[in-house]
Amino acid sequence: MLIFQQVNFDNIDELVVLADAIWHEYWKDKLSDEQIEYMLKCFQSKPAIIKQIINENYQYYFINNSSENIGYFGVTNKDEYLFLSKLYISKDYRAKGFGRQTFEKIKKIAQLCHKNSIQLTVNKYNTDTINAYKKWGLKQINSLVTDIGEGFVMDDYIMEYRFQHE
Fold this sequence. Notes:
Blueprint: E1 2-6, H1 12-26, H2 33-43, H3 46-55, E2 59-65, E3 68-77, E4 82-89, H4 98-112, E5 117-123, H5 127-135, E6 139-149, E7 152-162
Parallel strand pairs: 4-5
Antiparallel strand pairs: 1-2, 2-3, 3-4, 5-7, 6-7
Helix pairs in contact: 1-2
């Protein structure tokens, strides 16, 4: 059974180490080492995470299985939806249902925040993840190319999960 533990200022260092390990393994065949390092510095370093929590109202959670943090996710409230910014699971725990269980938790967070949908961005070439999101009921609603500096861009689809109301 998964346990979701909210990240706080005392355990951000643990999140940074986990993110670094997962990103280097996961993105190595999709992005250059330089872009991985740049994105980690901009989005998953301790100063970046603290800024996201304080200034952008992000909430990060560890995904814990049998007392081991096997991944993490980050969300923030937007006016009309919950934005799922990050969802990463360590290599040895992928394709075992943990992502789907985590998405169920994210859906509960969205409902507690009275949101009608969840949106996320996903790299257009990240086909395994796109296919998982489609299985979970998300639909592609748009695409987006974002200049993140240093000559790097994020080339993404915007996907959305809409809650069905009776």
